[in-house]
Amino acid sequence: MDAEGDGESKALFAQVQFHIVKTENLPPDHAAALAKRLEQNGAREIPRSSEDTIPLEEVTHIISTTIDFPDYDAANNALKSVVKPDWVDASITKGRLANPRQYSPDPRLFFSGLIVCCADIPSGDADAIIGGVLAMGGLYSSSVSKMVTHIVALSMDSDKCQTALSRDLKCKIVLPHWFDDCLKLGKRIDEGPYCLPDPEILRPAPEDRIAEARAVDLMGATSPKPSRLQTPSSSPAENRRKLSVFKNKKIMLSNDLELGSRLLETLEDLIVSGGGSVTGSVHRADIFICLYRESLDYRIASRAGKDVGNLAWLYHLITHNKWTSPMRRLLHYPIARHGLPGFNRFRISLSNYNGEARVYLENLAKAAGGEFTKTMKEDNTHLITAHMVSEKCDAAKEWNIHIVNHLWLEESYAKWQIQTISNSRYTHFPTRTNLGEVVGQTPIDKQAVERVFFPQGSDVDYSTEAKHAPEPMSTRDQNLLSSRPITTPNPSSSTLNRSRDVPLRSSQSGGPTPKASKENRRHTEGAFRTPAASRFVGEGKENETPSTTGSRSAKEKAVAKLHNLAPDIALFEKERKRVGGVTHGRDRRSSEEKGLDGNRKRSVSNEDDTDTGADEEARVAKRAKKVKGLAPPTMRLALSGYKRWVGAKKKESEERSRLRELGILVVSDYASCTHLASPRLLRTQKFICALAHAPVVLSTNFVDDCLSENKALDPGDYPLEDIEGEQRMSFKLSDALARAKENKGKLLKGYSIYCTESVHGGFDTYKSIVEVNGGKCLLYRARAGTGSMRAGLDEDSDASESSQVDSVYLISGTTVEESKLWPKFRQMVENIGKKPVVAATNWMLDLALSQEIKWKDIYALSEKDIGTDPPKA
């Protein structure tokens, strides 16, 4: 019997191939004991490969006390289980493999490791607490045992509390208020003030002074541009010998760091002595260090998935000699030169934060583009405070200054979007808690930064360039060849124009970078081979070269620049030949370009939407100077599928002007239109999006008759009637418009909808349809794990609405490439406790057209649909 039981025990981890990440909290001796226990129960340890990386193709489980190790993102993308050491003990105790999610070291699952038992609280409150604990990585136990870490009770009189006391169990008995405050903040705060039998939050004087809190782990992360290199107390020689964090790593230092020669030499020596090397080519680098998020090399490194950090992060690695992600701390990642758009109008003051937390928040406010003031006056816009007990808080109430906690500042910066203070998370202050204890726990939102600063889909092919990158030079010279900053306007233009029909593509508007020619790549990768020229020749001094090599390089740059300007020169010559010349012919060119942009707009179906999309309002404002007494428009008309002006720019311009004089302004923005004209029911982006605003829908005969009779006719005589189209699309237009008025653009409120990148019609099209109906649409590439999806869903400011929707949808086509994403999507959604639904594009189009959420089995996609035409409703 014993032998048989021993065989069953050994089979427990028979399918487990593990790797242990050694950290300060998991030292080598503890890791060795843990590995021995696993191997005794049938598991197999996988060591690091020769490249000093975790062989993810072999590993099934990674055991770590933190997610802060270099291979975490890759492991997450590969859907490998990353668990804490407690997972091993829990599995052995249960006799089966425990749920990895309940033992995840991901800090976003802030109840991970908790086992909660409810005592004498109402059933409704108990259900809410249990749901919150399970959603945030914890476990629930119906009975009191030695595994329970927290008992939720209103008093010590309950049987479960007395049982815990009699058995002397190592668990905490807390009020349910603690869970409520943790869930509101999205952070785990100290449970001390909530512990029975004498909880501090129930004492009669909550206005008493609250103890100061020390922010954990902010050392070296309080400024994006540190003034000096902090080192441990041991000697420099000893530090260099022990430094191993740069082993087998190639580091590139950008010119925008503006390092002095002495500091530069020191950093190079530390990197080289630690087993790393310094390179001048971003394509060969594993780590890129820069100050600003603006250079071409920054974008190339970021898109290639390299580690990109600033000087503070590099100093942190040197000081602590252990790996940490540059995105873990906000000020370890490069900053934006001009700050967060719109943040410059804020004047911010701090209260109740001290020490490193205060310095960190000051620098974070400045990095976001705001103005920080040490003293608070009436012209301040925001007071950031750790609790409400202070004179500044009292004054802010009198002066009507916004009072928020630091989470508002951190998450605005992390998500690169100003968060609304109407979100209760940012105005919640637990009674006896100093929120300084959770400062610095917010990481950079990688998806938000990618969307604004280095969006995918760029023409820069870094994988191809890497093959042709020049051979590395000497270690000392390589560092001198860094990225050339590119001056760009405010990067927020991509987000400010989110509602446009045609997404921005110009690199000067923060969009993807144009593909660089081979000639330009060579200069970017380090064409200057002479150290003296690189180190001492100032900017703008390219002509003062000490050798013929430098002269030849300058000529090549001039030729490349002239080559890049060739299209502009040709366009100038073309405009110069026009009637009126370059200056007075400008209007015609602008009109043509606007017309071309409009014709590039995508349609959801094959039916053409030939609306030119020209910005008529700007033209009207200009014409109003010539035509005095032009009355305000009585109708703002959007056109969809109107073919009268196709290929007739001059006729279009004249007739638009005539319509404007009749009080009819033709607009391209469906959000501002009062009327929509179309020849029939269409499934174009403009038609579908406009329906959400419940406009008056007319036949395009209205426009034709107005022009032919040269007067504004009654739009009531021209309703759009398309019985055949209504039968084909299975909805009635009048009913859809009535429902749109009731929905008020909130049909999809609370819905989280993902789209594949190659979905028919394009992601931007479905994003505009979902958002105009109040939903949230995200691009799905299967590159993020459960935590990233949870973070993406939690971005919605109205979390309560989102929690009421049980399903998460993926809009997809039926190509083989898209179908490969379905299993990962389903698994990730199930891991966060939701129901995954893979839907055909027709579901979203029919839903938006009918303004009614309805589901048919034909909308669902399964493996049998792969390679077939999209299912028709």
Structural write-up:
The chain is an alpha/beta fold and 873 residues long. Among the domains are: 2-103, 3-Layer(aba) Sandwich (Rossmann fold), CATH 3.40.50; 115-202, Rossmann fold (3-Layer(aba) Sandwich), CATH 3.40.50.10190; 586-734, BRCT domain (Rossmann fold, 3-Layer(aba) Sandwich); 745-865, Rossmann fold. The chain contains 35 helices and 24 strands. The strands form six sheets. The protein has a four-stranded parallel sheet. Helix 5 (123-135) links the parallel strand 5 (115-118) and strand 6 (139-140). The two termini are 62 Å apart. Residues 221-240, 461-559, 576-627 are annotated as: Disordered. One of its GO terms (cellular component) is nucleus. This is BRCT domain-containing protein.
What are the key terms here?
single chain, 873 residues, alpha/beta, Rossmann fold, 4-stranded parallel β-sheet, 35 helices, 24 strands, disordered N terminus, BRCT_dom_sf
